[in-house]
Amino acid sequence: MRRAVVVVSVVLLAGCGSAEPAGVKPVAWAKAVCGALSPWRTKLDTLTSQTQRQLTAQTTPSQAKQNLVGLLAGMEDASETARGKVAGAGTPAVDDGAKIAERFVRSLTGVRDAYGHARTTVAGLDPRDGKMFYAAVRAAFGTLQSEYAATALDTDKFTSGTLKEAFNEVPECH
């Protein structure tokens, strides 16, 4: 499964302007956003590693189902926690700051929902036929990857020297 790094690439967002927009100073906003995303990435990595260890051990389809549902629920919860913290970071004081903040939150909302859809799908699978179960799990994770990819932001459309500098300056972002 792909690591959850989609949201990290969004640090290249925003527009430049001459008047100072209202909101949170860019460095403070970057610190809050990275402070939310760093533990989120760590949690996703930990859950993925734990599940991979569990799945490589001899398990029945029922045990695999339980492990996968736990993994996906943990990823969904971690994504919601990160989403809430990013939403709580406010709006960066750059042109289009409200749009930028909203895009970050929307991206994390999409990630959370993708994990939730996959969790619901796997929880509803019948593990009695292992071959069919694992085929359905692969399909569910394929859908998860598609939904996850759909949450990615096109950062090529946005540039902000101020936010780029802020994300580069803040230790929490490295």
Give the arrangement of secondary structure elements.
Layout: H1 26-56, H2 61-88, H3 97-123, H4 130-150, H5 161-169
In short:
With 174 residues, the chain is mainly alpha-helical. Helices cover 67% and strands 0% of the residues.
Question: What would you call the shape?
Answer: elongated
> Structural class of the secondary structure composition?
mainly alpha
Distance between the termini: 23 Å
Provide the helix percentage: 55-70%
Count of helix runs: 5
Count the E strands: 0
Oligomer: single chain
Defining traits:
174 residues, mainly alpha, 67% helix, elongated, disordered N terminus
Structure description:
It is a single chain. The protein is mainly alpha-helical. The chain is elongated, with a radius of gyration of 18 Å. The longest helix has 31 residues, at 26-56. The model is unreliable at 1-18 (pLDDT under 50). Helix 1 (26-56) packs antiparallel against helix 2 (61-88), helix 1 packs across helix 5 and helix 3 packs antiparallel against helix 4 (130-150). It is 67% helix and 0% strand. It has one domain (17-173). The chain has five helices and no strands.
